[in-house]
Amino acid sequence: MAESRSDLPESVKDYMRLAIKLAKQSxxxxxxxxxxxxxxxxxxxxxxxxxxxxxxxxxTHAEQCCLQKFATQHGKSESDVVDLLPKGTVIYTTMEPxxxxxxxxxxxxxxxxxxxxxxxxxITTVYHGVSEPETFVxxxxxxxxxxxxxxxxxxxxxxxxxxxxxxTVGHPRKEDA
Length: 177
What we know:
- This protein is α/β, with parallel strands linked by helices and 177 residues long.
- 27% of the residues lie in helices and 20% in strands.
- It has helices at 10-23, 62-73, 108-114, 142-148, 160-167; strands at residues 3-5, 36-41, 46-52, 89-95, 123-130, 152-156.
- A six-stranded mixed β-sheet has the order 1-6-5-4-2-3, sandwiched between helices.
- β4, α3 (108-114) and β5 form a beta-alpha-beta unit.
- The radius of gyration is 15 Å and the shape is globular.
- It starts with a strand and ends in a 10-residue tail after the last helix.
């Protein structure tokens, strides 16, 4: 079951604040959420990579950009980074990772699960700020898949309003309809 925590260490909240800053760099579109993500070595408290929606070419999501940029830093493809992720790697994302992509791209949940095949166990925890609204693909069932794979799923509370305001920039507002 997902943990919902407001009593998390300040470093967790700082990483979520950084993820929100990244989300604000996402180009606003009515067909995407503006999301920020940070890949972190939790043991060393070190940022490994960052990403935001549409940062890289194609219809890229924040988590996808994090993993692709980490791979590029090491001269590898995304599928080859599993053994490069240090023990205790976690990901912070302003919105829960997608479990389904209408574009045909690999969902972010699958990207995270694929890291579990690495020698150090891949991503061990997903810290997220809000659940994915059902705007595009309906209910996101990815959390259950992460938890079934032994990945901690922690809701970092206290940022919901700001995250949703940032995430929906470029979307039609009810008063506009």
